Structure to design on (73 residues):
């Protein structure tokens, strides 16, 4: 079993926090763009002192919120 997982009701609910660099790599954007999105409040994050992390669910919500209907292009 993956020791980074936290379970609730026998379902994995937490796989770890993502760094801005990891989010940037996933989205194919620059790290500075990710920090800008976080500062603007467009991408939710958690802060531990100076460290900024993104929950995988928040990244998924950001992606879903920014989906574009191809018929509107």
């Amino acid at each position: 079993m993956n020791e980074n997982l936290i379970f609730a009701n026998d379902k994995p609910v937490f796989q770890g926090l993502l760094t801005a660099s990891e989010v940037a790599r996933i989205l194919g954007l620059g790290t500075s763009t990710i920090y800008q999105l976080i500062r603007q409040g467009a991408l939710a994050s958690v802060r531990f002192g100076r460290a900024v992390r993104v929950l995988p669910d928040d990244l998924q919500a950001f992606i879903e919120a920014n989906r574009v209907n191809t018929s509107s292009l």
The CA atoms of residues 22 and 28 lie 10 Å apart. The longest strand covers residues 11-14. The chain has a mean pLDDT of 85. The two ends are 44 Å apart (CA to CA).
